[in-house]
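Long-time lurker. I teach an intro course on protein structure, and each term I like to show students one example going from raw sequence to a predicted 3D structure in token notation. This year I'd like something fresh instead of my usual example. Would anyone be willing to generate the tokens for the chain below so I can use it in lecture? Attribution to the forum is fine with me.
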Amino acid sequence: MKIKMVAYAINRFFTDVNADLFKKVLYMQPIEYLKRAFAGYVYEKQNLVLTEEAWQRVVEIDDIHVMRVILAKLIIDDISETDDHKVESDFRKAMLENKKITEKIIAYMDDEQEMNKVESFIDKN
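-- Reply from a regular --
Happy to contribute to a lecture. Here you go:
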């Protein structure tokens, strides 16, 4: 369920009219800019320590949508008020160290039925 919730949050972030500034940055910049923004977020905002494999994965990303999703997760975590920073930090690391998690997030984001299920779950709780 965590992967679906993250997919929903990122999907909402991309479609929320209040996120216009972030969307401009994410959609109007080349992938290399997004990678630099990611590095800045990791060092300045998140104090996230990444493995060498995770950094290598970021360097090797050639799909701009994947980079947007990863950067969006960082931005969402930075601006959201969550009580469980460790879980979110661990999840960000997992996204970077295991590309299948990011692929699954993107698949859920593209699945309208799954996004509707998550929204229904949120509305009930």
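Some talking points for your students: The chain has eight helices and no strands. Residues 114 and 120 are 10 Å apart (CA to CA).
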